[in-house]
C-alpha cells in the first residue's frame, strides 16, 4: 500500500475511534443540564453592573447558612454573581432522581428558610434574625420567595432574598444579598428574577 494511502487510512481510523468514544461519552438524545441566569437577569443594581461567575460543581458557602442540612447526597452546580459594591447573588441547581424527590426537596428547603432566622439566633446570641414571606411565584411547578434580615450586636446588618423553585425533577435556589434591611430589598425585581430562573432551567 502506498505511503499516502496508508496514512489516509490510519487517519480515517483515528477519526472513527474518536467519534465512537464521543458517542459513548454523550449518548444520543441525552438531556442538556439546567440553564443558569445571566447577569442581566438579576435585579438591577442602582450604581453597579452585575458580573457573572463560572458555573461550578458544588454548593456556595453562603447558602449553607440556612440550607446546610439538605445538601449531603445531592450533586449540585451553582453560578455566583457580584457587583463592584456590596451586593452579591448566586443560583444553585440540583437535579434529583424524580419529580417526587424534587418536590420533597423544595418543601424541605422552604421550611428550612422559614426557620432560619430562629436558628441563626440560637446558634449566635450576638445576632438577631427576622423573616418575611414574599409569597409564591408562577413559574413551571412553582416557586416561593423569602426574606431574611440579620443584625449583629456590633451593628452589622444584612438582607437576603431567597427563592426556591422547581421544574420537574430539578430544584433551583436563587439568593440575592447586600448590606441593609428589608427596606433595601428589591422584592418585585427579585420575584421576576425567580420566575426567569425557573422558566429557563430547560
TrEMBL record:
Superkingdom in the source lineage: Bacteria
Keywords noted in UniProt: Signal
Signal peptide coordinates: 1-25
Name this protein carries in UniProt: PknH-like extracellular domain-containing protein
Source species: Streptomyces pharetrae CZA14
Lineage of the organism: Bacteria, Bacillati, Actinomycetota, Actinomycetes, Kitasatosporales
Amino acid at each position: 500500500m502506498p505511503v499516502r494511502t496508508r496514512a489516509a487510512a490510519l487517519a480515517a481510523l483515528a477519526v472513527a475511534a474518536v467519534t465512537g468514544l464521543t458517542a459513548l461519552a454523550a449518548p444520543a438524545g441525552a438531556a442538556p443540564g439546567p440553564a443558569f441566569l445571566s447577569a442581566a437577569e438579576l435585579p438591577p443594581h442602582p450604581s453597579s453592573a452585575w458580573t457573572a461567575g463560572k458555573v461550578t460543581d458544588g454548593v456556595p458557602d453562603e447558602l449553607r447558612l440556612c440550607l446546610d442540612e439538605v445538601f449531603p447526597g445531592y450533586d449540585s452546580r451553582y453560578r455566583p454573581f457580584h457587583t463592584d459594591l456590596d451586593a452579591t447573588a448566586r443560583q444553585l441547581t440540583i437535579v434529583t432522581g424524580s419529580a417526587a424527590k424534587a418536590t420533597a426537596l423544595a418543601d424541605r428547603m422552604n421550611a428550612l428558610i422559614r426557620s432560619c432566622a430562629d436558628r441563626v439566633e440560637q446558634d449566635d446570641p450576638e445576632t438577631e434574625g427576622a423573616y418575611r414571606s414574599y409569597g409564591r411565584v408562577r413559574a413551571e411547578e412553582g416557586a416561593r420567595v423569602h426574606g431574611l434580615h440579620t443584625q449583629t450586636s456590633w451593628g452589622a446588618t444584612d438582607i437576603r432574598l431567597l427563592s426556591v423553585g422547581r421544574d420537574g425533577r430539578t430544584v433551583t435556589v436563587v439568593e440575592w444579598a447586600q448590606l441593609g434591611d428589608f427596606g433595601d430589598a428589591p422584592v418585585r425585581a427579585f420575584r421576576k428574577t425567580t420566575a426567569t430562573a425557573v422558566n429557563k432551567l430547560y
